[in-house]
Design a protein that fits this description.
The complex is a heterodimer of chains A (318) and B (401).
Chain A: H1 2-27, H2 32-37, H3 43-52, H4 59-72, H5 88-123, H6 128-142, H7 145-159, H8 181-212, H9 215-222, H10 227-250, H11 253-256, H12 259-265, H13 270-279, H14 283-311
Helix pairs in contact in A: 1-14, 5-6, 5-8, 5-10, 6-8, 7-8, 8-10, 9-10, 10-14, 12-13, 13-14
Chain B: H1 2-6, H2 8-15, H3 17-42, H4 46-51, H5 69-87, H6 92-98, E1 100-101, E2 104-105, H7 111-130, H8 139-151, E3 159-160, E4 166-167, H9 170-176, H10 187-223, H11 225-239, H12 243-253, H13 264-274, H14 276-289, H15 293-301, H16 305-313, H17 318-341, H18 352-364, H19 369-396
Antiparallel strand pairs in B: 1-2, 3-4
Helix pairs in contact in B: 2-19, 3-10, 3-19, 5-7, 5-8, 7-8, 10-11, 10-13, 10-14, 10-17, 10-19, 12-13, 14-17, 17-18, 17-19, 18-19
The chains are: A mainly alpha (318), B mainly alpha (401).
Chain lengths: 318, 401
């Protein structure tokens, strides 16, 4: 097992080095300082900024600096260009909780609901219930994310309770604290659940259907087990492996998954910080945040692989 | 061609009624897109200018919606205000002649007559109407409103009779069919034009991504060794950045300079993040295929490796290319909406994403025509592609979960 973990870790080192090179290259396609100062900057201003932010140094030196920052998790010396005097480390610390406040509940809710619906659908396979659910899932998948967000905000945050002067959901914004959570975060969580449902339900149903064709199910049927027992005792247990894998593979998206919702609902999470940084051409924030996202993404990928190897020992050998 | 139609998978696909319907739908969209593209090339100023044309007041609902009294008053006031503004200029006759909303215009009257038959009576009615605070259900006010519409609205159209009563042209009715957006532009025309943008983005980015992915994936799977290591490293690298972040970084990296305002930054962002999934799938399939006897036979005959790869191996991954093309097409259309919302997508042109994004503010005023139209146009196409992808998968790759 340890050799497996070590192998996965080592395998991902060149991948991460590649990401950093790609990221730094992409961000330098347009000169970041010209982006900050405008098209025709004063040469002395330009040089001063270039020196201040270390952009005059060779690519390799900047590369090592960024890598060092990520490895030591020390972002206290990376200064944001647009938020006066704020350092990336502080911005990261402030924004991570609001992001998780949306993505973690959304993931749990989506998984529970999608698996339940998939079970219902697989149980009534081929019958009207199943067909209706699957048509709904495909139609739901075909509507744009943005449409759900706009209508969700309009109906639940704007119209609901408007007559009686009550407001159940915030149109936008965020305040910390558990008591404030439902008001600010429940609606984005529900929307993101709804969006993910179509795709997840179809996937889980396909897993169940695949499982239902296996030999052990035929055996169980031949031995006279009831349909319910086959479904919940035999099938669900075995279907759990792909289901858990899928949930785990969505873990890396937890960090970024809610970018759109954060932007739309004005929730100061990591996604919105990155979005604003891209809009305002805040080069150090973009570079550092993407580097961190990629690192988290890779770490959770490794975690997924390890957990998967624990569940299914065959993986370790390949 | 006949041989192609005889294949088992193709036969199965053509038997699937839903798949056939969705292929017709996709074909219809492609035709519309082609029509817009050709029309854009051969008309002066392009059809694009048609999408920027002001055809009437803002946020007029679709043709079959009943308007509230407030909305009717607002529309009549819009026309009256434009006429009055023209009358105040130094050359009213020219200003009146220049007034046009789509193909709607004023009757070709002398300025005096417009003054006495439109502006003066309309002003009188407006003053009388201003005394009524409530319009809905107020008989007197509604009668005034009807008269105002007869004096102003009924005079505006494509052609006029002796007494100045206007007739609307078919073109104008078509433009007005689904109402206007916040700048008085035709929603229907914009949605149709957007079909071109969507198809363009979908076809270009899906095609290039599938080509890159297939070539790299097939090379990696077939040659193995160093090539495989490099390709796997490349796609692991690209796929280790969350796709929306990758899209945002790439779209903003290619922003500015000569490409600003074209679709090239969007294409670049999509192609660089979409080639991964076909590459991964094709690599796996090629690794399986190269162990098969017919490939070994080909190499025993003495065919070169490149020839085997391009003539014998890649054609057998065609079904995966089709499935991936279909899936990536959907991905591109949906991602375009998100990028447009983030301000990194299509510029200078209408697209469904741009329309949905513009509709945000209208929705809060209870105006759903723009978001509804863009969504319906998009959903039908995406639904057709989703159905087709499912059918393709069932027909050619049934073992896939």
């Amino acid at each position: 097992m340890w050799t497996f973990i070590l192998r996965r870790l080592l395998y991902n080192v060149p991948v991460y080095l590649g990401i950093l090179a790609l990221l730094m290259g992409a961000l330098r396609v347009n000169d970041p300082i010209s982006g900050k100062l405008g098209k025709n900057p004063d040469p002395s201003d330009y040089l001063a900024l270039e020196q201040r932010y270390g952009l005059d140094q060779p690519f390799a030196v900047q590369y090592v600096k960024l890598l060092g920052d990520v490895v030591t998790l020390d972002f206290t010396d990376v200064e944001s260009w647009t938020n006066d005097g704020l350092f990336v480390g502080e911005m990261l610390a402030e924004s991570i909780v609001p992001s998780l406040a949306i993505t973690v509940p959304a993931l749990c809710l989506t998984s529970v609901l999608a698996i339940s619906i998939a079970i219902i659908s697989a149980f009534f396979r081929g019958r009207p219930v199943d067909k209706t659910l699957m048509v709904l899932a495909v139609v739901g998948m075909s509507v744009s994310f943005l449409v759900y967000v706009i209508f969700g905000q309009y109906w639940f945050a704007y119209l609901l309770g408007r007559g009686s002067g009550l407001s159940y959901f915030a149109i936008g914004g965020y305040e910390s604290g558990l008591a404030n959570w439902p008001y600010y975060c429940l609606l984005p969580v529900l929307i993101s659940t709804f969006v993910a449902m179509g795709y997840d339900t179809r996937f889980y149903r396909a897993v169940m259907v695949e499982e239902s064709g296996r030999d052990y199910i035929t055996t169980a049927k031949a031995k006279g087990a009831t349909k319910t027992k086959i479904m919940f005792v035999h099938m669900l247990k075995n279907a759990m492996i792909p289901i858990i894998t899928r949930i785990m593979t969505t873990l890396p998206f937890l960090v970024m998954g809610s970018l759109l919702l954060e932007v739309y609902f004005n929730i100061p999470g990591m996604g919105r910080v990155l979005y604003k940084a891209i809009q305002e051409q805040d080069f150090p924030v973009v570079q550092t945040f993407v580097a961190i996202f990629a690192a988290l993404f890779i770490l959770s990928n490794i975690l997924t692989d390890v957990l998967y190897a624990l569940v299914d020992p065959r993986v370790r050998l390949s | 061609m006949a041989k192609f139609m005889q294949q088992r998978g193709v036969k199965k696909l053509l038997k699937d009624r839903l798949a056939v319907v969705s292929m017709w739908v996709i074909g219809a969209y492609l035709l519309v897109a082609l029509g817009v593209l050709v029309g854009n090339l051969f008309t002066e100023g392009g059809l694009k200018s048609e999408t920027e044309l002001r055809i009437g007041p803002d946020n007029v609902p679709g043709a079959w919606a009943t308007q509230s009294a407030e909305a009717r008053l607002r529309d009549a006031t819009f026309y009256l205000d434009s006429i009055k503004k023209a009358s105040r200029g130094s050359d009213p006759a020219a200003a009146y002649a220049a007034l046009e909303w789509g193909s709607d215009r004023l009757p070709a009257w002398k300025p005096d007559r417009i003054e006495s038959e439109i502006i003066e009576p309309a002003d009188e009615i407006s003053t009388a109407l201003a005394d009524h605070r409530e319009l809905e259900g107020n008989v007197e006010a509604l009668a005034l409103l009807d008269r105002l519409e007869q004096v102003v609205r009924a005079r505006i159209g494509a052609s006029h009779d002796e007494s100045g009563n206007a007739q609307r042209s078919a073109g104008q009715s078509f433009r007005m069919l689904l109402g206007t957006d916040r700048q008085g532009r035709s929603i229907l025309v914009r949605a149709i034009y957007s079909t071109k943008v969507a198809v363009q983005i979908g076809v270009v980015s899906a095609l290039i991504s599938v080509l890159i992915g297939t070539i790299l994936g097939a090379a990696a799977g077939y040659f193995g060794g160093v090539v495989d290591v490099i390709v796997v490293w490349l796609y692991s690298t690209f796929s280790s950045i969350p796709w929306i972040v990758l899209l945002m970084v790439l779209a903003s990296a290619f922003r500015g300079g000569d490409w600003d305002g074209t679709l090239i930054p969007v294409y670049a962002a999509f192609c660089l993040s979409f080639w991964i999934s076909p590459c991964r799938v094709v690599r796996g399939e090629v690794m399986k295929l190269k162990e098969l006897e017919y490939v070994q036979a080909a190499s025993a005959i003495g065919f070169g490796r490149a020839r085997i790869l391009f003539k014998h191996v890649i054609p057998n991954t065609a079904h995966l290319m089709f499935i991936n093309f279909s899936l990536l097409f959907i991905g591109a259309i949906k991602a375009e909406v998100i990028l447009s919302f983030l301000g990194l997508g299509v510029k200078n042109e209408p697209s469904w994403g741009v329309m949905i994004n513009h509709a945000k503010a209208e929705v809060l005023n209870g105006f759903f025509w723009q978001i509804g139209t863009a969504t319906v146009f998009m959903v039908i196409l995406v639904l057709a592609f989703n159905t087709l992808s499912d059918a393709l998968q069932d027909a050619f790759d049934p073992k896939h979960v």
